[in-house]
Amino acid sequence: MHRPNLNNLPPSERTLLASLIQQYATPGIINLHSNAVSSGVHNDPVGFLSFHRNYIAGLEAFLIEQGYAQWVPLPAWNPAEPIPEEFNIPNSGPERLLNLNPNVSFSPEFDQENLTNFATVEELGMALMTRHNLVHARIGGVMNNLRRAPIAPIFWVFHSFIDDIWWEWQRLTVVVPSVIGLKLADATNILSNFGLRTMRNANLYTSAGVKIKQQRPAPLTLSLLGSVVELYY
Ligand SMILES: [Cu+2]
């Protein structure tokens, strides 16, 4: 796993992170997810993965903006472990989380050494969705309400965990298509079909085509008509 484990953070940091997530999760942000539910994202294995990756990226951008780059990439909560008390939100009212120990393991099927048994992203996404649904159902409360679930901070770090599995699968399997010489917009389109996206970063320039760097979130850098992009899994 490449995202830090939420349960390894000191409680005071978890408290702060949970409150920042709540600040970010305004009604407009909740609606983005609710609209995605309406358009069927949770029945489409690829849409499921890519929608939530972008959704988390919005929070990560907010954290950077607020001066908390240390939580980017967003920490991940493994649902084989209990929800930490600082993430027991909401803890009262009709939407309160009902079960802090859903006890759902993603092992061994989603362990690194078994990930390549998923031949396609559709297969992986389908298997992840099923297991993911069980976690939502077992936590209950607002987490069992697809349209409102992102009001719970645990939603975000749980999806961070799912995304990390996809990221790892991509790292092991995805062949990055050549986009050298294309305009940034065209390259971005092609790459998005592979679940990859471009980002500007002038510090990681390489003119030698695709280069994989061992850092999270594993940027691949290439030269596109003189502009520099990073490809993030
Ligand atoms: Cu979910």
What's the short story on this structure?
The protein has 233 residues and is an alpha+beta fold. It has helices at residues 11-24, 27-38, 45-65, 121-139, 153-173, 184-192; strands at residues 197-200, 211-212, 219-224, 227-232.
Topology:
Layout: H1 11-24, H2 27-38, H3 45-65, H4 121-139, H5 153-173, H6 184-192, E1 197-200, E2 211-212, E3 219-224, E4 227-232
Antiparallel strand pairs: 1-4, 2-3, 3-4
This protein binds copper (II) ion.
What do you see in this structure?
The chain has 233 residues and is an alpha+beta fold. The protein has two domains: 6-173, di-copper center containing domain from catechol oxidase (Orthogonal Bundle), CATH 1.10.1280.10; 184-232, no CATH class. It has helices spanning 11-24, 27-38, 45-65, 121-139, 153-173, 184-192; strands at 197-200, 211-212, 219-224, 227-232. It has a four-stranded antiparallel β-sheet with strand order 1-4-3-2, covered by helices on one side. Helix 3 packs across helix 4 (121-139) and helix 3 packs across helix 5 (153-173). The longest helix has 21 residues, at 45-65. The model is unreliable at 200-233 (pLDDT under 50). Bound molecules: copper (II) ion. Copper (II) ion (CU) binds at residues 132, 136, 149, 159.
